[in-house]
Amino acid sequence: MLTPRPQKPEIAGQQYAVVLVNEDQLNQLIRRPGMRQVNSRWGSNDALARYEKLKRRTMAAAIALVVLAAGAFAWVFVPQPAMASMFDWSKPPAIPTLYTGASFSVTIASIDSADGANDAASRVRSIGMPAFTRRSPGKNQVYQALVGPFASLDEAEKAQRRLGGMGYRGARLFVDESLRTAPRGERPLDTSSSDLSVLLLGAPDRVSLVFELQSEPRQVTSARPDALTLQIDAGPMPTPAQPQQWSAPEGVHLLHTVSIESVAAQGGLNYARARVALPQFAKANVRTEGRRVYVDLTWPLDEEGDPRTPRRTTASTLQEGNPIAQGKERESGSDAQKLNGQAQHERYRAEIQPIHQRITEIRPFILSAAQSGSTDVYAALDSTLANLEAALVGMSVPPSEAGQHQLLITATRSARSGLTPGFAGDRLAHAQKALTMFDGAMAVPVISTAP
Q1: Of 139, 141, 148, 100, whose CA–CA distance to 121 is shortest?
Q2: Residues 77/82/85/89 CA torsion (nearest 10 deg)
Q3: Dist. CA 440–CA 283, nearest whole Å
């Protein structure tokens, strides 16, 4: 018996079968050889990136070659002092600036007579108190005798009470803040491990450097090893002093740098030694107040401007109480002397101005020459300074400018001495001291004080 064949189902419309294969199965079906990756690191889309990277590397190499060539040219053909002033890494590291503060003084006399102020200050100095005189600013000038300056209000009030017991009932406090806000260097001073503190005070016509020790020193000695250095030994100290160094704030010309070191004495005692680099013209006085050691630095004043100097007894001073004689004297010669003095002063200022300008131009070369070590540079700069010195010596100087003019000559000779081939000291420090003297000679300091 025959079985009937099953009929195919009828499918409405046209349909397709979908077979999912991977790449290997497809290669087997169509018998295509397998593909292999030619470059496994770089794709075709990385060609532009590779080109840009190669371009950057080529440009960097070209720039490096140009810089090296320029540096070699400068090293061979540019003078060493100029090179030293061009690059910051060739300059010595900056040292911290001294801390500054307000000073406290006691006014004991304000009178019209310079001799009277001088006598009052002398009486106070005779009992061991620091006294000085000044001519007050303003239109109504008077001569004042003051005691101080002090770093703290307690010290000033103690001096005021003592002066009151001497009969100076009208003694009053005077505060000077001229250096309290002086600009400081960027590098801060680290006092965390310091065993003493140093403070710079401004006072009328002077500055005072204050060293505060751990305990009251039993011995304080001072000496001036050379014209530009003041050395102070204080102690004994409980522990050795940590080496430190400071620089003066901008605008202060009575000192340049201050350094501290420890000195061992007999018996295992430790002393603190301070070295103050100051200009040759500066006058220094050392005093102690408890744990504090004061160094008072003052400007040299001429006889006419210094109220501490007694006036000379001349025919003109004997006629001070006679108005008729004073009138005749003024009529006879005062006007002529005034005109001659003014003409001489104007002529001097016209002659000294180009010298000041020349000194300002060679200032950076003095420092760079001190660091160069080149005898040729020393000789070239010494020739320039020698010409300046000869011009200064040959000038006619009015009496009012004699002090500053002599200081210019001294500063020029000091700068030359540091450039001699046989100089055995620190050339850079010596050059910095000479520049400090130039600053003091070319710019008279202005200290603002309150009446």
Answers
A1: 148
A2: 20
A3: 13
Place of tokens 């200050």: 121
Residue 230: what are its φ and ψ, rounded to 5°?
-115, 125
How far apart CA 114 and CA 121 sit, in angstroms, is: 11
Return all residues near 276 (Cβ < 8 A) that are at least 6 apart: 209, 229, 230, 231, 232, 255, 257, 258, 284, 295
C-alpha 184/C-alpha 194 separation (Å) is 19
> Dihedral of CA 428/433/434/435: which sign?
positive
Q: What is the CATH number of domain 100-298?
A: 2.60.40.3470
| Closest C-alpha to 135, from 123, 121, 124 | 121
CA atoms 398, 404, 410, 414: torsion sign: negative
pLDDT tens digits, 58-77: 888 888 888 887 777 766 66
Distance (Å, whole) CA 445 – CA 439: 9
Phi then psi for residue 106, to 5 deg, are: -125, 120
Look-up of token digits 């003019």: 405
Cα dihedral across residues 300, 305, 307, 313: positive or negative: positive
Q: Residue 242's CB: how many other CB atoms inside 10 A? A: 14
In eight-state DSSP terms, residue 97 is B
Give the DSSP H or E segment for 362. helix 335-372
Contact 208, 298 (CB under 8 A): no
38-57: pLDDT as tens digits: 555 545 456 667 777 788 88
Cβ(241)–Cβ(272) below 8 Å: yes
Longest dimension (CA), the chain: 177
Contact at 8 Å (CB) between 369 and 381?
yes
For tokens 């070191």, what's the residue? 261
DSSP 8-state secondary structure symbol assigned to residue 96: P
The pLDDT tens digits for 349-407 are: 888 888 888 888 888 888 888 887 777 778 888 888 888 888 888 888 887 677 778 77
pTM: 0.51
Neighbours of 232 (CB within 10 A): 21
CA 180 from centroid of its chain's CA atoms: 15
| Cβ atoms of 89 and 178 closer than 8 Å | no
Which residues have CB under 8 Å from 196's CB, separation 6+?
Answer: 211, 212, 213, 214, 241, 260, 272
